[in-house]
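Hi F.,

I've been meaning to write this up properly since the lab meeting, where we talked about keeping a consistent format for the predictions we share between groups. The idea is simple: the sequence comes first, exactly as it goes in, then the structure tokens exactly as they come out, then a line or two of notes. No screenshots and no reformatting. I'm using this chain as the first example so we have something concrete to point to.
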Amino acid sequence: MPTYSISEYAPHPGQLELHRAEDKEILVVSAIRAGKSHGIIFDAICSAWNNQTNWGTLITAPTYRLVDSVLERPIVNRLLAMGLLAEHSFSRHESTLKNGKVIYYRSLDDPDLALRGLNIYKAYIDEAAYCSKYAVDVVKGRLLTSNGQLVMITTPNGQTSWMYDEYIVNKKDNVKYINFKLTDNPIITSEAIERLYESYDPILAKQELEGEWVNLFENQIYYAFSDLNLDTFEADDSQVYIGLDFNIDKNAWVAIQKMPNNTFRVIGEGYGDKTTADVATTLLTTYPDAIVIPDATGSNRLQGTGKTNFQLLRQAGVHKVVERKSNPHRSDRYAIVNATFLNALNQRRLFIDEKKCPRLVRELRELSYRDKTIKVEDKGGEVGHITDALGYAIVYLTGRSVGKLITESNNFIEEWKARKLAYDNFSI
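Output, unedited:
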């Protein structure tokens, strides 16, 4: 049976190294936007088609959502476009190719159930560092009969990850190590890369943009904050925004102004109002024209009154309220605030009046992870509220999400043709 190459695919150096690797175990560590999923898709298609055995090819990831959106559907669409697909079942999660070869798509959240009865000749694990060690071992067990190849591709997951200890600290002689760099991807311009570095703090940038294994949980949560983010200033005529965290007897808030140079000043704080009506009175007295950016849980109806905190604010006279259906994910909120304190380009955009905001400054310095885990040491819920209020406001005011920028290079076609030429006459 002839081998099959993909004429419209021009792999970058890291992808090409993956496609040519014959080692039994391969670990690809990739920065974001470096072509990780693209590499899996094309390698899996060609490997499955060129499979000389009677066993199938396995495509896996930590969750079904990741398998479905990033791998299964893109592979099925590509197989259809190439005319290689005989049939596909989204209920069984299996593709049968026109030469009779089969690709299985499975989630590793329950590996014993998902992989039961499968014998495979080659397996791919996307985001392997986010899978349990047990799940990866189960996949290895499915390869025993065929003595097949295991390809693990992942972005780093911190130095507390089992994979860091198992594969990075103790490098294995029988494992092929490959690195995908962000700069390998021809569709990412230098301007886009700079924008990405602008949106990450220095530590997270090392992990996400440079593919390094860093310890995100040994530091204080707001590790980018320092005395360089402290100042003293008076409020001017700029619009005031209030970040607000709802909690009985606490109701923490911060007052922020966005300046013309695109920096932010925290000019005041509040803590300890018993009820939502009480905090509304405080805000109307202190900043009557402020726009309030509250905790999204304020849309939930309260026991006793049957009203929401948003309704209670308006009932008390606070009418400029930004209502959102959900809060940003906590880890994203931490990352965005850290990057506003200090980004990977060494820019600081968030400054706090240390005399007017003593509680906020203290929490930023002290709030930490518990025993180097992802759990926050919040002292039984007594701390963390005023920094949450800051986070709600900063995420809204910056309009940022982490790592979402993709820009096509002006010279992408020329770079693609050059890589295509270097790839000619090579079949995976």
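Notes:
The chain has two domains: 13-185, 227-398.
The chain has a mean pLDDT of 85.

If this format works for you, I'll send the rest the same way.

G.
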